[in-house]
Design brief:
homodimer, 223 residues, alpha/beta, Arc Repressor Mutant, subunit A, Rossmann fold, 2 domains, 7-stranded mixed sheet, 8 helices, DNA-binding
Chain lengths: 223, 223
Amino acid sequence: MPPSERKKPAAENDAAVPKAVVNRLSLYLRELQHLVAAGSATTSSGQLGQKLGFTDAQVRKDLAYFGQFGYPGVGYRCDELIEAIRGILGTNRHWPMAIVGIGNLGRALLGYKGFSHQGFRIVAGFDADASKIGKSIEGVEIFDIAELTNVVQQRQIKLGVIAVPAAAAQQVADQLVAAKVLGIVNFAPVTITLPEHVSHVGVDLAIEMEQIAFAVVNRLSGG
Amino acid sequence: MPPSERKKPAAENDAAVPKAVVNRLSLYLRELQHLVAAGSATTSSGQLGQKLGFTDAQVRKDLAYFGQFGYPGVGYRCDELIEAIRGILGTNRHWPMAIVGIGNLGRALLGYKGFSHQGFRIVAGFDADASKIGKSIEGVEIFDIAELTNVVQQRQIKLGVIAVPAAAAQQVADQLVAAKVLGIVNFAPVTITLPEHVSHVGVDLAIEMEQIAFAVVNRLSGG
DNA sequence: ACATGTGAAAAAATTCACAGCA
DNA sequence: TGCTGTGAATTTTTTCACATGT
């Protein structure tokens, strides 16, 4: 019998969960999946923390936001903790998603293998370039961006990924919001403005490089 | 006369600068460059913060880690602050870099236009696949990964980008370290272990999607 | 008048340290 | 014994609020 929620109804309105905690949760999940692939059945906060560069207390405190998942004196059963974290993150559900902008980055995202394991399925691509429309790339149909609202509704798309140039990003974001996606990941190097009820995450490849440059210039090893 | 450093020698050993501060610095820089492109000569902590969703005090405190860059009663001169931040981040230098792994993502990175504006120049690609070696993609020569050490030294490559499958990432990281790169950006979905003196940043596309899933499931709008 | 820069206060996140259970 | 879960202490980060400079 898994101790899934000996106390807390997993993600109650207790307190706002810091974004950093959610990010670490994803790292724990990734590490747990590697552990299972390597044949481990159980692990501990100490082992998990060591692999990722966190303290054992941090691992336990992070999990404590959501419930009690371990066995005192023993540790955590990997498969149970994986399922618990997937439930918390929502990656045990199906997430139909669309990529908008089929340039170099858009194509790379269409072919990325890592999404399917966490419930993300790319069910449409969009572009304004007539030479791409109607084609199928990596098994995904590419539509005219003018069809976005229709296709998002027909295919029940919940998440949109913006991979267009900066100048077009806000307009694409507006179209995705109008089509009623629930969340947006923005790869364009610009800040987009969205209504409160639409979640978003921004990823800027140049900014990641800038972080490494700073770390090097200041001789830091941080990750 | 810019007030560049009325007090602090920009990035002294005062105190460790939080990673979150450095990340926001990159966002300020991006926003300032958009402001200049839009014709603004000056801005203020309030305006900058509003565009990015931070308070004015936060913007000022972040900059205060590195010196005094503003004019009381006036604000900041965009061009001066841009140069100051570029100096802090180190993006006013030249950063020869290499992409290891010329799959979908590697190719997208080779063609990414956003790097050159911040001093990053891709001067080599590496792959183990004989059909790619010797070719030129997006104007970048692709070498056999066995040549990594030689090429890194010949071309004075300072940063390495890992875009290989998870199973090969640690080995590639070790090769980059042996070739004496100063920093590594890892796109493989695995935690890599590096010596203390090599800086690193990890970017996992699936984890970014997981963050959006969590935000949606918990009806958050955070970015 | 207006916006910076900065001590002081407040809030948040992390680490400590130990009771309790397997 | 070994490891979790968690209050308490500590450290870090953010916000406040105002003296200072233009």
